[in-house]
Amino acid sequence: MSYIPNTDADRRRMLDSIGADSVSELFEHIPEPYVLDRPLDIPGPLSEMELRRYAAELSGRNINLDNCACFLGAGIYDHYLPSTVPAVVGRSELYTSYTPYQPEVSQGNLQAIFEFQSLICQLTGMEVANASMYDGATALAEAALMASSITGRTEWLVSSCVHPAYRDTMRTYAWAAGCRLVESPRTGILTDLADVSDRVTDQTACVVIQNPNFFGAVETLAEAESVAHGNGALFVVCFDPISLGLLKPPGVFNADICVAEGQPLGIPPGYGGPLLGLFACKKEYVRQMPGRIVGATSDAAGRRAYALTLQTREQHIRRERATSNICTNEALNALAAAVYLSTLGKQGLRRVADLCVQKAHHAAEAISSLPGYELPFDVRFFKEFVVKTPKPVSGINQRLLAKNVIGGLDLEKFYPDLAGHMLLCVTENRTIEEIHLLAEVLSQ
Amino acid sequence: MTTEPTIFERSSPGRVGISWPAVDVPERPVSELLGPENLREELPLPEVSQVDVVRHYTHLSSVNYGVDTGFYPLGSCTMKYSPKVNEEIAALPGFSALHPYQDEETSQGILQVLYDVQRFLAEIGGMDAVTLQPAAGAQGEFTALMLFKRHHERVGEAHRRIVIVPDSSHGTNPATAARCGYEIVKVNSGPDGLADVSALSSELSGDVAAVMLTNPNTLGLFESRVTDMSRMIHDAGALLYCDGANMNAILGINRPGDMGFDAMHFNLHKTFSAPHGGGGPGSGPVAVKGFLERYLPVPTVGFEDGRYFLDYDRPESIGRVHSFYGNIGVIVKAYAYILNLGAEGLRSVSENAVLNANYLLSKIASAYDVPYGRRCMHEFVASALRYKDSGVRALDIAKRLMDYGFHPPTMYFPLIVPEALMIEPTETESIETLDAFAEAMLAIGREAQSQPELVHSAPHTAPVSRLDEAEAARRLELRWSDAGD
Q: What is the DSSP string of B155-216?
């Protein structure tokens, strides 16, 4: 079904009004040789009933996180989704609208985005936030591009403890823009700050650190900040929003720009998308910031209201001189994050962060006491940690899967020198029984 | 209507919106685990009850207009009805609760969806290969231009530094080309509203990397001379890009790949009915001709020996453009939509979208000039220029439409039509809705002459009256603050 309300009789009336004999007449300016002379080779149609049945069957071929205990993180996290989030995000007045170019009939989305920006500022200790980027990786690439345009420099100095897929994405963006990604090696699973200091040059646009880093370890941001600012580069921090329930936020470390994957804030893992790129910066840089920004104003009656602002940065006004080409973003997921942070509030976010920390440390301790397993790196960590395994990680994960447990990431995939190391993640969703089941299977 | 206070103003110390389980593992002081030097002092988030949260956002939703509220003819955005069954399917845990790094053997169902969508889009576009990674149309454009850039590097033509765009193009086209390091040359449209072949020809040179065209273009006209332009462009060693924002006009009728386009993007949130989410998420897959396939971002989804897999074996790839594999949830909705419609259904989408647009054009043509012809594809651009003398502009007409219960069309775009109102009804609107909208447009035209102040001061019945958008830029109040700064 094409969801087309008009009937043949309606179409006849419409053609009469137009003064056309047939619908095909409306397509006559398409040159004849380029009119497709066969039906598209596409299956269907399926009725709604058939479609649902088929989709249920197809989705049933995947093992989903609701039916197992997931200890896999590495950028996408199995956090608890409060019931308020789908309830609000499912309001179709919100989800079937588009970019609020007409503020008088879009106050709902505009105010929600204004509040989202405010919540992200509160969370990060930053002065301004935009209304979202695509995901963590592209938010980071945009941050680096912005640093280049602010500093006029072309090198992006990035710790190799930053998520590998984020660095891959930055490399792509850097190449396109004529910039260069410089990757600083690690010491164990921490950024080698002495090396960062060695590599920083007068061409370094930004120093990029992730905290907690890809391995879950807490970095020394203060030192990285002084290296960046001591050399005229911007300091860019990639953070985990849940960790900021407890950890010092990027703003405290004088970050110029901070970005994150916002998926932990009430967005389902979704096989990695759609996600939510969080992006905040110092107010002095707001005119170089990419993406949509909502500001407060008033209406003709003097009432407080909200509208898109600083649109002269954007592609639809500034075209080739825009700060970014971004147009459609992840607004609905920004709404989800706003509902999530509002629902949890001050106490709830601390609570979730605390549950993660407690459970992750309990799991780490339990696993480190198993024969053959160790925690080879002595670092502070939040919800993820690295375990050295006595056997190949893939085999261990197969055994875990047989018990409905999704094991950790095989680090060899991204760091060949870390073969035989597994990155485990423990969120508030994991119970003590699941942690003990994990330990039990590992010990076999 | 009173203004809804912010969530921060509803905050009261000690309130919580959700309860959490007790810590079920032996608990240790968090300062011991994380280090006291790493702990934050304050966490200034609001404290509200659950009912506060739900009422707050429910109230906000009640002052927002979506496609489910009513007619939303926002040109170039294809605000069609989003079928509810697609939302349900995308929310199935077997699609939404999957981890991108879980074993491929445990995700064969979703990999099949992705593989099938790659195939469907290639077929619909007349192309050979597809990447689903771009998260939105603009990122699709960016991805495609990078593919072009890589191709030119590989064939020893890296010196090509110019991208040509028509003056009627979307803003994302030049913004994207600039982001890829290209210089932008704009060519004016001809008197018929189509890209001017001779103007284009005079700009073509060995320095041109690509030409970006939207087809049908932003005036709602089919670029019938594409194949001539394609020959010229390719003879000059440049490549031809199709901005697929307007695919809703030509599904199953015409394929960009058959007309000489080398690459294109789709907007799954426009053409394939995924809702627009108040500004996203969208999805902007890119389809390419065979010679560009080797450069596609990693990974794509492959199928061999009865098994779907993530294909990273692409040594000449431009790299990644997304953390993982793209906006999967949106892609699932597009998949459901395509299967629901089938080939005939897709074709009838475009037939009815074009019929609806032409009908609406015929109904309002007496009161608004349509500078480029009596016929259009899926949308058309009317001009409110004739009312300017009485002080009424396109903006005023847009605002007045709100009083009649409609979402306004796109305004002041494309830039080549003065006082532009860009109207795209889509196929999911009935003749009655179109008639009602046309009557409102005609009535506003009369009001513009008899009571211009009424139009000029609209909207009168929207949740707020006309906003001072300039004040927002002056005030730069971009976050809530209890200090009011």
A: TT-TT--EEEEETTS-THHHHHHHHTT-EEEEE-B-TTSSB-HHHHHHH--TTEEEEEEESS
Please list the residue range(s) of chain B that carry CATH number 3.40.640.10: 85-340
Interface of A with B in 86-105 (CB under 8 A): 86-88, 90-105
Q: DSSP alpha helices (H): ranges in A216-311?
A: 221-230
By the CB < 8 Å criterion, does A326 face chain B?
yes
Q: What is the pLDDT of residues A156-213, one digit of tens each?
A: 999 999 999 999 999 999 999 999 999 999 999 999 999 999 999 999 999 999 999 9
Average pLDDT over residues A386-391: 98
Q: What's the mean pLDDT in B116-138?
A: 98
Kindly list the residues from chain B whose CB atom is less than 8 angstroms away from the CB atom of residue A138. Answer: 135, 139, 321-323
Residues A102-146 pLDDT 10s: 999 999 999 999 999 999 999 999 999 999 999 999 999 999 999
pLDDT score of B485: 43
How many Å lie between the alpha carbon of B311 and the closest alpha carbon of chain A?
14
> Which pLDDT does position B347 carry in this prediction?
97
Closest residue of chain A to B479, computed from CA coordinates: A118
Is the confidence metric ipTM above 0.95 for this complex? yes
The whole-chain average pLDDT of chain B stands at 96
Q: Inspect the interface and report whether the beta carbons of B40 and A244 lie closer than 8 Å.
A: yes
Query: Is A251 in a helix, a strand, or coil?
Result: helix
Which chain B residues in 209-248 lie under 8 Å from chain A, judged by CB atoms?
A: 221-222, 224, 227
Would you say the pTM of this structure is higher than 0.90?
A: yes
- Chain A residues whose CB is inside 8 A of the B148 CB are none
> Judged by CB atoms within 8 Å, which residues 223-242 of A form the interface with B?
none
Q: How far apart are CA A316 and CA A319, in angstroms?
A: 6
Point out which residues pair with A258 in neighbouring strands: A237, A280
The residue of B246, B323, B407, B412 whose CB has the most chain A CBs within 10 angstroms, and thus the best one to mutate to test that interface, is B323
Question: Which of the 8 DSSP states describes residue B136?
Answer: S
The reply to whether B359 touches chain A by the CB within 8 Å rule is: yes
Quote the minimal CA–CA distance from B236 to chain A in Å: 23
Decide if A144 contacts A174 (C-beta within 8 A). Answer: yes
Backbone angles phi, psi at B425, to 5 degrees: -80, -30
pLDDT cut 90: percent of chain B above it: 97
Which option is the CATH number for B85-340: 3.40.640.10, 3.20.20.210, 3.60.20.20, 3.40.50.300? 3.40.640.10
Beta-carbon contacts below 8 Å between A and B: 697
Judged on CB neighbours under 10 Å (0-12, 13-18, 19+), A268 is buried
Nearest CB neighbour to B348, from listed A2, A246, A270: A2
Phi-psi region of A166 (alpha: psi -120 to 50; beta: other; left: phi over 0): alpha
Q: B343-471, what's its fold?
A: Aspartate Aminotransferase, domain 1 (3.90.1150)
Q: Which chain B residue has the Cα nearest residue A310?
A: B473
Tell me the per-residue pLDDT of A394-419, one tens digit each, with 9 for 90 and over: 999 999 999 999 999 999 999 999 99
Name all domains of chain A by residue range, CATH numbers in brackets.
65-81+346-443 (3.90.1150.10), 84-340 (3.40.640.10)
- B175–A318 C-beta distance less than 8 A: yes
On whether any CB of chain B is under 8 Å from the CB of A362, the answer is yes
The string of pLDDT tens digits covering residues B420-476 is 999 999 999 999 999 999 999 999 999 999 999 999 999 999 999 999 999 999 999
Instruction: Give the rounded percent of residues in chain B with a pLDDT score beyond 70.
Output: 99
In the predicted model, is pLDDT for residue B2 greater than 80? no
H or E, element range at B342: helix B328-364
Q: Any idea which residue has 């979730």 for tokens?
A: A352
| Residue among B244, B227, B222, B213 nearest B372 (CA) | B222
Contact (CB<8Å) B107/A63 = yes
